[in-house]
Amino acid sequence: MENKYQRVKDSLKEAILSGKYPIDEKLPTETELMEQFKVSRYTIRRAVGDLETEHFIYRIQGGGMFVQDWHKDWTTENDSKMIGVITTHIADYIFPRIIYGLDEVISDSGYSMLLGNTRNNHDRERKHLINMLNSKVAGLIIEPTQSALPNPNMDLYQEIKDDQIPVLFINAAYPQLDFPYVNTADAKTEKKLVEYLLGMGHESILGIFQVDDIQGVNRMNGFVQAYQEHPDISYKSNLIMYQSGDDFERITSRVASYIDSTDRPTAIACYNDQLAIPVMSYVKSRGLRVPQDISIVGFDNYQMSQYMSPGLTTLNHVKDVMGEDAGRMMLQLLNKQPVQSITYEPDLIVRQSTAAPKHVD
Fold first, then answer.
1. Which domains does the chain have, with CATH numbers?
2. What is the DSSP code string of 297-320?
3. Which one of 57, 93, 284, 303 has the minimum C-beta count within 10 Å?
4. Whole-model pTM?
5. DSSP H helical ranges for 55-166
6. Contact residues for 150 (Cβ-Cβ < 8 A; gap 6+)
């Protein structure tokens, strides 16, 4: 459990890093801090002493405590050559390959990585951003957290921007910020995937998309755009929206309502392979055959998707290439060179999980 001294220190440091207390602003007195945190004078002095040692606070005899210019020598003091990398799910099937490609590039230039995992939670994102600032990383590569929702950490991002710390977004971007990014043409390629199904004769397709991340919103938009070009059958489309924290059972209960209906969909388009694989298993557990009864498609080309039975039709995510490009772009940013954002267009990978519906000859 975090002790009182550490709680006071971390709280004051966060307030300084987030800009609540600007450079050279006078801090509350010891007595005011004691009242604020409900701790002893000793606890306050210990916390403030550490912050003074770390150059976050300076004192003026008889004048009080003030905020030190803690980022003044950012570039000259950074000898560790550390790049902060913040992901939403570091252990999922996407990021290990991205990190591998990234490390291949930056390690050759003498840089190493400090990793953080938000688990797609804004509070954890804030903690990792503060940790990166404390560690004085040379640059930041960030996968936005719940990128389709309002972000409460914009004060920290503004501080990072004001300090001119190089930042690169990956897989998504916050629209309020103009940092460069590497991402995927999610809407365009999901539309291509749905058009492939429509071209096979599928008219009633169920789309299942995660909507707290902008990738899922864009893929859902691609699904809708494909049907907009087929207005005569658009009424046969179906959508399930979910968020990253939802249990799979909640999703399958809604899938069940569709596959149990008399006019069940003949195909299911999933947000990604990580969802498509258990959906395929669930559909088969209900006595339906894939693809004879229902075709299923994913997105991202998870390595295991080709070994499923049947193999999963999907869209390729260029994980290693994305990591390598991100590494090269970060090195350019560190060298104060201009960079251009990159958007990839994944290729369609057709496997055995899709077939023409029964009613099509």
1. 4-67 (1.10.10.10), 79-184+320-344 (3.40.50.2300), 186-317 (3.40.50.2300)
2. E-SB--GGGGGSSSPPBEEB--HH
3. 303
4. 0.81
5. 74-77, 95-106, 122-134, 154-162
6. none
